[in-house]
Amino acid sequence: MKKAGILNRHLAGALAELGHGDGVLVCDAGMPIPAGPRVVDLAFRAGVPSFAEVLDGLLDELVVEGATAAREVREANPDASALLEKRFPGLWTVSHEELKSLSAGARLIVRTGEARPYANVLLRCGVFF
Questions:
Q1: Per the residue annotation, which of 20, 36, 46, 60 is the catalytic one?
Q2: Of 54, 93, 99, 119, which has fewest CB within 10 angstroms of its CB?
């Protein structure tokens, strides 16, 4: 058994398959899930695991060259907005509707148990060299 890093076998396997430019949507429990991308649902109950916990765990495992969030997060969820701005100084924002459209092109969707609105971010994978 793995002793460190991500223990969820579905998530660990999906991350290992990602390549440069692939999209990973990290989303709250209320985000509509489009048909097509691989989905790893980590939601256990409302708020567990949190968006912040999942995002930070993924950032330990991935190289990210860009991130996109809904601009509505600034007003509707200041905590998530502050977290995203801190983790991604060059955060690109679009409307929530556009973020939902962009998520259909993601290679992987990771659903958290977050129960606050707009706790969603689309990550663009980079390379480690």
A1: 20
A2: 93
